[in-house]
Amino acid sequence: MSTAAVPYRHPNPKEALPEIIVPHAVPQDERVWVPQADKVWFRPLCLNVSQGYWTNLLRVRKSGVLSCHRHPQAVHGYVIKGSWRYLEHDWVATEGSYVFEPPGETHTLYVPEDVEEMITLFQVNGVMYYVDSEGNHTGFEDVFTKLDMCRKHYESVGLGADYVDQFIR
Questions:
Q1: C-alpha Rg value of the chain to the nearest Å
Q2: Section 76-90 average pLDDT
Q3: Residue 90 DSSP SS3
Q4: pLDDT tens for residues 109-150?
Q5: How many Cβ atoms from other residues are within 10 Å of residue 32's Cβ?
Q6: 8 Å CB contact between 106 and 133
Q7: Which of 4, 70, 100, 116 sits CB 3.0–4.6 Å from 106 for a disulfide?
């Protein structure tokens, strides 16, 4: 490996999309958080419409629950602040924890009452398929429903529906 700091001298492929740089991933402007459920918000970082995944920060304040759901594809998470667990498992994800959720995993995310605020970076592939405790379908989210939620929210808080465009690839 070379120790010289020499940049690559050729252009990227002309079809390559530009990178996304988010200087304040945990936003300073509260309006950037998109409401998802009671005490639950998300902050988009990448909404990949061509490959069907999204990367976002999930925030839960005080005790909160993200309804029971199944992932048909893998999910990766990294806890930035606070802690949480799945009602279906014994482990607790604490600050600094990495979580891999394999395809087929069905769970209910729970933030305990003693946690003031939880923020976790999630990269979700495919769909979140919501089910009740018996496995009956109750709804879904995918990159397109997330995008719609963002457009509506950003329009309503004065950022403009196109604010979300910077996160689309």
A1: 18
A2: 97
A3: coil
A4: 999 999 999 999 999 999 999 999 999 999 999 999 999 999
A5: 22
A6: no
A7: 70
Q: What does the alpha-carbon distance between residue 99 and residue 81 come to, in Å, rounded to a whole number?
A: 14
User: Per the CATH hierarchy, to which homologous superfamily does domain 31-167 belong?
Assistant: Jelly Rolls (2.60.120.10)
- So what's the pLDDT on residue 167? 98
Domain ranges of the chain: 31-167
12-29: burial string, b at 16+ Cβ within 10 Å, e else:
eeeeeeeeeebeeeeeee
Taking the C-alpha atoms of residue 90 and residue 104, their distance in angstroms, rounded to an integer, is: 18
The DSSP result for 53-87, as a single string, is EEEEEEEEESSEEEEEEE-SS-EEEEEEESEEEET
CA distance 90 to 92: 7
81-110: string of b/e by CB count within 10 Å (b at 16+)? ebbbbbeeeeeebeeeeeeebeeebebbbb
Report the pLDDT value the prediction gives residue 66, as an integer from 0 to 100.
82
Residue 163 identity: Y
Q: What six digits make up the tokens of 154? A: 């950003």
**pTM exceeding 0.90:** yes
